[in-house]
Amino acid sequence: MQTMLTLALWPSLTAGCVLLGGLLLHKRLMLLSACLSALLVFSGIAGIMAYRDYSWSTAVYNALPAGSQVIWQQHAVLAGHPWTRLYAPVTAVRTINHSSVTMEANGNQLLEFELQDFDLHNGLQPVSRQVMLNCERQDMVLRLSDGILIETLPNGDPLLRILCQAD
Question: Second label for 27, Cα 20 to 30 Å away, from 11, 35, 38, 90?
Answer without folding.
Answer: 11
